[in-house]
Design brief:
3 helices, Nuclear Transport Factor 2, Chain: A, about 25% helix, 6-stranded mixed β-sheet, alpha+beta
Length: about 140
């Protein structure tokens, strides 16, 4: 059975997103977001509202890992309708610091998409890491 065109379009958007992050191409990356993006990123703030706030966050994140990035997606699941879609997956995120050391972990990702002006855009994004309730420590060593 063939996937609906919307599902294929979302898969293409997700791959473009992944490649833009690995290439550190903020302009391509930000072009994928709706102007009113709301992101619950795992880093720094409780939430980011709007493209300008999220662009500044992405730019800061990119400076922490000046070397190559790893941004691998596993167990991708997309559900789509004509003008709305959502996806979830596990992401292995790693970056190389200025000393050449790769640091990374597995994260959980959920994203919401909406067709805006005829184009699919990311309208919501949520990145998280599980944590131990007793210690409050993030569980970065977990594997899928």
């Amino acid at each position: 059975m063939n996937a609906p065109i919307e599902n294929t379009d979302i898969h293409t958007l997700i791959q473009t997103y992944r490649k833009a992050v690995m290439a550190k191409d903020i302009d391509v990356l930000m072009g994928l977001y709706a102007d009113n993006i709301v992101s619950f990123d795992a880093v720094k703030a409780l939430q980011f509202k709007g493209k300008a706030a999220y662009r500044a966050h992405w730019q800061e994140c990119m400076t922490h890992c000046p070397g190559p990035h790893t941004f691998d997606f596993h167990q991708l699941n997309v559900v789509s309708a004509p003008d709305m879609a959502f996806a979830h997956w596990l992401a292995h995120c790693a970056g190389t610091d200025d000393e050449g050391q790769a640091k990374g972990c597995w994260m959980r990702v959920t994203a919401g998409y909406q067709r805006v002006g005829g184009h699919w855009r990311i309208v919501h994004e949520h990145w998280s890491a599980p944590f131990d309730m007793m210690s409050g420590a993030a569980l970065f060593e977990l594997q899928p």
